[in-house]
Amino acid sequence: LKTIPTNIPKDTVGLYLANNSISTIATTDLSGLTKLENFYIPRNSLTTVEDGSFADLRSLTAMVLSENRLKKFPD
Fold first, then answer.
1. Residue 54's domain spans which residues?
2. Cα first-last separation, the chain
3. For residue 21, what pLDDT is reported?
4. Could you give the angle at the alpha carbon of 15 between the alpha carbons of 9 and 16, nearest 5°?
5. What is the per-residue pLDDT for 71?
6. pTM to 2 decimals?
7. In the chain, how many domains are there?
């Protein structure tokens, strides 16, 4: 995968995207995923996480972004 899929069901609680070629988490990529608890995206090509990307993730309890090339991460 080069981008986060756009058809993720809104009731998803775990999203596992390890070992892909995703370079950016865009503001709209995770929008509406209010039930997401676990987000794992290690070993990708991530360089950018846009501001507001995690705004809807009210239920998030675990996130793994290891082994990426992050240059920009929101405040």
1. 1-75
2. 26
3. 98
4. 140
5. 85
6. 0.92
7. 1
Task: Dump pLDDT digits (tens) for 16-58.
Answer: 999 999 999 999 999 999 999 999 999 999 999 999 999 999 9
Q: What CATH code is carried by the domain that includes residue 12?
A: 3.80.10.10
Distance between CA atoms of residues 53 and 55, nearest Å = 6
Q: How many residues in total does the chain contain?
A: 75
User: Using 50, 70 and 90 to split pLDDT, how confident is the model at 72?
Assistant: confident
Evaluate the CA torsion angle 67, 16, 39, 3 in order and state its sign.
positive
CB count within 10 Å of CB 41 equals 22
**What are the C-alpha distances in Å from 23 to residues 3, 11, 19, 34, 49?**
7, 25, 12, 23, 9
CA distance 5 to 40: 14
